[in-house]
Amino acid sequence: MAHLDLEKPLLERNDRLAAENKARLTAAGVFMVDLMASPGAGKTSTILATIDALRENYRIAVIEGDIASDVDSQTIKSKGIAAVQINTGGACHLESDMIARALGVLDLDALDLIIIENVGNLVCPTDFYLGEDAKVMILSVPEGDDKPLKYPGIFQISDAIILNKVDTAPVFDFDREAFLSSTRGLNPTAPVFEIAATTGQGVAIWTDWLAERVEKKRRALS
Amino acid sequence: MAHLDLEKPLLERNDRLAAENKARLTAAGVFMVDLMASPGAGKTSTILATIDALRENYRIAVIEGDIASDVDSQTIKSKGIAAVQINTGGACHLESDMIARALGVLDLDALDLIIIENVGNLVCPTDFYLGEDAKVMILSVPEGDDKPLKYPGIFQISDAIILNKVDTAPVFDFDREAFLSSTRGLNPTAPVFEIAATTGQGVAIWTDWLAERVEKKRRALS
């Protein structure tokens, strides 16, 4: 399709800038994770729970991607955590040049972990690497157990998969076994963390996984 | 941005084909509605409830847009309704040429209403007209009341807005007044239908609105 051909040079340029971002972060010993999900799956509340769990041991900043508004970065800042807002002005994903500018604003030597909240979308962010060490996706129970079948790409490229809002499972007709089985079929290696970000249920297993990787990247520097 | 410049010829071509689709539908007296929403907001269950309400008086077909899979079109077909599956193979929205091919498969003279289920996405479908008579978006309560602020484009261009899963409001921290107020600010004229597609709550007000428009288009022919 014409669309894909037009996008090829764009993706190549994006990948080049992503490699530059990654080199900057590695030089500073900073781990960067890209959180992707549909609108309303609980990206911001997962970030808040992650900050609560890790802020004692690690220095954290957040890059907030939104089409419009700074609702989320205000929420993060109110917790005393540095947050850079990126408004894409219509684009359905973040790109490496936007992240490069955000990294320019942050003091990388004073950080261990950067969490990117990508634009709410299960499709567009899939193709765009940003220089992150891990891509992590969140699906929430109310979205339904059939989403791996409908949006296979994002399940395939994620390094870890969070299933959020598991506390609402009784209200929704969510077939956990079907979800796990089709997720496994698409991505046999990524861990699946079943959490309820707002109550804290299951969050520690996810943050332990993340902390281990942050620690490893920081140690590689010294 | 480079991205937008590259997309301009694509959008112009899309709009030309959209006008051709609309002319075909007008010649046949068929009303076409484009349903847009995030993954899991309840597009398919809203379509099923709409079919139940209108099938006695109108001849209906469904065009199913998905990145992958034919889960939804199988569900529609099992109700005895014609369904055409479009797999976009990665693209985050439907385009007019895909709809033109789907219209070629359907017998337009034997139809009154075509419902398009767009790819689950609050961003990409916004820019692409398909030749539809109305664009209708669905937001579901679990997605949160702040979505109009974060995804203003889709709220602005919709001819009607459905708030689905209102039966789950007690479980979620959804501020109905805040949602209605920011929606009104973006789009003062579109009606907002508060429904629970799976229980039928509120559905009749939405289907009455739709039936009125289907009727009008059919009558314009005779």
Order of strands across the widest beta sheet of chain A? 3-2-4-1-5-6-7
What is the CATH level 1 assignment of chain A?
A: Alpha Beta
CATH homologous group name of chain A? P-loop containing nucleotide triphosphate hydrolases
- Percentage of residues assigned to helices of chain A: 40-55%
H/E element order of chain A? HEHEHEHEEHHEHEH
In total, how many beta strands of chain A?
7
Q: What would you call the shape of chain A? A: globular
Q: What are the low-pLDDT stretches of chain A, counting only 5+ consecutive residues below 50?
A: 1-6
Supply the helix-strand structural class of chain A: alpha/beta
Main β-sheet of chain A: number of strands, strand sense, barrel status?
7 strands, parallel
State Rg of chain A: 17 Å
CATH architecture of chain A: 3-Layer(aba) Sandwich
**Could you say what the CATH topology of chain A is called?**
Rossmann fold
How far from one another are the termini of chain A?
48 Å
> How many separate domains make up the residues of chain A?
1
Show the largest interface. A-B, 39 and 39 residues
Would you tell me the overall average pLDDT of chain A? 93
Q: What is the number of helices of chain A?
A: 8
Oligomeric state of the chains present here: homodimer
General description of the model:
By secondary structure, chain A is α/β, with parallel strands linked by helices. Chain A has one domain (13-214): Rossmann fold, CATH 3.40.50. Helices cover 43% and strands 18% of the residues of chain A. Chain A has 8 helices and 7 strands, in the order αβαβαβαββααβαβα. Chain A has helices at residues 2-28, 43-54, 71-77, 96-105, 147-150, 152-157, 176-186, 203-221; strands at 31-37, 60-66, 82-87, 113-117, 134-140, 160-164, 192-194. In chain A, strands 3-2-4-1-5-6-7 form a 7-stranded parallel beta sheet, with helices on both faces. In chain A, helix 1 (2-28) packs parallel to helix 4 and helix 2 packs across helix 8. The longest helix of chain A is centred in the N-terminal third of the chain and has 27 residues, at 2-28. The N and C termini of chain A lie far apart (48 Å). Mean pLDDT of chain A is 93; it is low at 1-6. Chains A and B meet through helix 1 and helix 5 of A and helix 1 and helix 5 of B.
